[in-house]
Predict the 3D structure of the following.
Amino acid sequence: MNKQNQEDTTNFGDESAVPQIKEVLYMNEIESMNPKEYQKWIYSQDCRANKVQIFRSEFYDRIFTQMCSPAHFVVWLAAWLIVILTLLPTHNIGNWIFATFIGYYFLSKKVELVLHKYVFHMKVRYNFQKYIHFLFHGLHHAAPKDLTYLMLPLLAGIPIAFIVRYILLLFTAYNYDLTNSLMAGILIGYVKYDIIHYSLHAFSKSEISGLVEQYTFSILPDKFVNSFVIKFESLKKNHNVHHYKNHNKHFEVSYLIE
């Protein structure tokens, strides 16, 4: 282990303690398990791999199931622009900007927490649920170092977005402008969540510090960069606890509970 990796495991503490016992984990390995066996196995050290494959063919995996791609962000950016364009003809832009801020700063955190805790960590009681759970989130816990499965697949994310929007419509008494403003904020929060979640798995503390300096052309004050890196370190430490010590803790990913 080189000096860089020693620094990271010292700082974050939980990752290196878990042996990666398989190179590839295939989805068909869950077929013979009943729901209770699957629920126990998916979060155990017996279920650890460097890589997950849904299909035996890597080509089909890249086409149909792997989630980290530019297309992912293009789709959510397009969705955000469509929502924003529906608000332009209105005469209360200031109100809708404020509602978008509320959607981003407050509601997106609640949506993140509820989805992660109650949907992605659903209690698997029926046989069909183990496949849904594995595709939604189980594969990520099985192979947290597989960077191709860090984002929710669009086939699941888009229906969830429509459900969230419908719930907002009910709460706003079918006020479409208010609903779309809140939804715009939630979409910003979701993209932020995806970027942070990817970074927590892909980069070390020193790497993220270097990236911040590189892409801001070193113009930001050292105090700001240091504060950002300290927050990143805390987020990564919490997320590693969630993955490697206790999957029932730290369902918040992109923010810290004060």
In short: The chain is about 65% helix and 5% strand.
